[in-house]
């Protein structure tokens, strides 16, 4: 098993553009906090800002699709650049934080957790929390989720003659969003803050980064007005923001062959204990039928598939997969060549299959193998069997020709057939193994379970022969890994 490469240098990506002035304020205060802690030389900070083309109107400044996609694309760009964690200075974006975390690999430092931590540490007696925020954030219940009723009471400024003072201060024609950091916006915010003070709040939290930007200038006040931008920056600098656990993801090298990939996916689903859609495992399939034929390369002069297999595995690695499954027996002849250059493990289907056989049949001595001539010639199964004290039985040359016809023939399974001549051909190979004394047979080509979808088969003499499906064994092992990671 390989382990991910370690990188002790911290790096952060700041999502700018949703509130250009306010996000720049968080960047500045983060630099100040790091400098005060002497850690500024040990961290890389990327501030990325593009024109956000979502609505700037306060009345429709909700968590729109445009905002979600803007933030998501920014995070994906940070991933490609090797950033270690995301700083998201936007309260409205935190209303869909769970959606972002479920679909990205990078940890996002939770701004609301930073505020909750600050309140508990700096204002342990505070119970009534005043909030200066937008209608959209207020209606989302964001602050109530982090400051629940059991311990807190969240209050908002009351409207004055139908006017929302905070909205007007930030989004108005002469508001903070337009670069006006004094005058009327400060007067409106001070009036809203005084209303909260009249409601006997213990402290006031800006729920807009633009409000935090000018918090120091909103005076005089009878209760503390917290600079939430500074609180967030200090929280990031202290590295107190913990990432939510990333959902386990299985990466699948697909297309080798296509029908076998679909079969493997069905077995992943079937073997996963789930009561609802969300209980299933994340799977990233890189379907690449253009990977050169493995058997052609091993038994003849076909093109080497090593680079194509490696490139497909790297795409899965880059996509955040935790492990790689290759539902192709013959492709495992190349696994040792590429595993050392990957930072995530390939679950060896052959090894786990043979281990499973040894556990189920402790007294067994011989195991039959139905596989491509390439798999047989490579010796990959033979070595795996010998490591478990088992002997491989292979079909006779004539019977092996019929096995290859069942797989690659014009009426074979790779051509989409599961009935007719392909059934006769594969049964000929199976009968040959039975005559040699096989009681257990590995279906060592991932298309063969499509021809022999049974756990065992009754013979004419009344005996039964066990059929081992490596695809199902691989699926079960992947599900086990995912379950262990979840625990």
TrEMBL record:
Lineage: Bacteria, Pseudomonadati, Pseudomonadota, Betaproteobacteria, Burkholderiales
Organism of provenance: Herbaspirillum robiniae
Assigned keywords, A-Z: Isomerase
Protein name, entry field: Aspartate/glutamate racemase family protein
Record-stated family: Belongs to the aspartate/glutamate racemases family.
The UniProt record lists the keyword Isomerase: yes
SUPFAM superfamilies assigned: Aspartate/glutamate racemase
